[in-house]
Write a structure and sequence with these properties.
Radius of gyration: 21 Å
Order of helices and strands: EEEEEEHEHEEEHEHEHEEEHHEEHH
Helix content: 25-40%
Mean pLDDT: 88
Strand content: 25-35%
Distance between the termini: 36 Å
Number of strands: 17
Structural class: alpha+beta
Number of domains: 3
CATH architecture of the largest domain: 2-Layer Sandwich
Low-confidence stretches: 1-13
Number of helices: 9
Shape: globular
CATH superfamily of the largest domain: ATPase, nucleotide binding domain
């Protein structure tokens, strides 16, 4: 069933003719696409039954690229041609990227344009072009599931994205052959997804700490309509920074110095991410790092140590929260 049917003034819609639309969450770490069927939202899966698409693109020597799980598996063996967390580069210049991207450094190419390009074996690509490859996969998935061509999409973006970052997102969608109906702030989308629009009226706070960005929005619900009272955040703070902090801890414990080996950097980041996720359900996790044929390190990371590692980053989210409360003109007691 189609997500919506559009009737335009002066134009008749033939019976049973529907126009298809979908919603896309273009995330730093993972992305997905969803639609509404019989009044219920459903995420759409690929032909292997996977709903989540890792936001990773690997460029190959023959000029082609692979996206998603296959690309993610190559992050360690082919780090300079496998682009991840590209959302952090959207709408940003080289100086901004150098400051925010930490240890993972791609080779950027000087151009006459203000848009930085990343050197790969398949040629130089921009963050917009990388993101478009992710969107192409989601577009294909949606059209296969819905049985027709998409009329348009709604794409979620961090509420704290500036105009350049929003425009870069639109450009990536257009390059992927998608018509952007609108950009929707992620905290607002989260509020609707959790059904807050169907609950008691009042003031709600959406704390959205994602893979690469942090947003906090204060929304007032009145008669089923959300009013965005204030928004704050940090577009360069997220789970990637948690992984980087954990990876730094691993390096210290393992006696690893320097970061010139990008394969090792990627391995550390992946091990850090795996450990972080494992500690959501376990009290401790064993980490193994392989540096060569005869070099291997093994250590244990506990949840208490993890909390100590990421505590400074969590504290960085508190200032935007206070700013959002101030801008909304309310105090904590007024939150529903």
């Amino acid at each position: 069933m189609a997500l919506l049917q559009i009737s335009e003034p002066g134009k008749a819609t033939a019976p049973h003719q529907h126009r298809l639309a979908a919603g896309i969450d273009l995330g730093t770490t993972n992305s997905l696409v969803a639609t509404v069927r019989s009044g219920m939202p459903n995420t759409l899966q690929d032909d292997q039954g996977r709903y989540i698409l890792p936001s990773v693109v690997r460029y190959q020597a023959d000029g082609t690229c692979v996206v998603g799980d296959a690309a993610k598996k190559a992050t360690t063996e082919d780090p300079m041609n496998t682009i991840s967390s590209v959302k952090r580069f959207m709408g940003r210049g080289i100086a901004d990227i150098t400051v925010s991207s930490g240890d993972i450094q791609y080779e950027f190419v000087e151009t006459h344009s203000a848009v930085p390009r990343i050197k790969t074996v398949a040629g130089n690509v921009s963050a917009i072009e990388v993101s478009s490859e992710i969107l192409k996969q989601l577009k294909q998935r949606a059209e296969q599931a819905l049985g027709g061509e998409l009329t348009g999409v709604v794409v979620t973006v961090p509420a704290y994205f500036d105009d350049a970052q929003r425009q870069a997102t639109k450009d990536a969608a257009r390059l992927a052959g998608l018509n952007v109906l609108r950009l929707l702030n992620e905290p607002t989308a989260a509020a609707v997804a959790y059904g807050l629009d169907k609950k008691a009226e009042g003031v709600h706070v959406i704390y959205d700490l994602g893979g690469g960005t942090f947003d906090v929005s204060i929304l007032r619900l009145n008669r089923g309509v959300f009013e965005v009272m204030s928004t704050a955040g940090n577009s360069t703070l997220g789970g990637d920074d948690f992984d980087r902090a954990i990876a730094q801890w691993i390096k210290q414990q393992a006696g690893i110095t320097g970061s010139a080996d990008q394969s090792l950097v990627r391995q550390l980041m992946q091990k850090a991410c795996d450990a972080k996720e494992a500690l959501t359900v376990s009290d401790s996790v064993t980490i193994e790092i392989v540096r060569g044929e005869n070099q291997q390190w093994q250590g244990i990371l506990t949840r208490d140590i993890l909390n100590a590692i990421i505590d400074p980053l969590i504290k960085q989210t508190l200032l935007p929260c206070k700013r959002a409360l101030r801008d909304a003109g309310i105090n904590r007691d007024e939150i529903t």
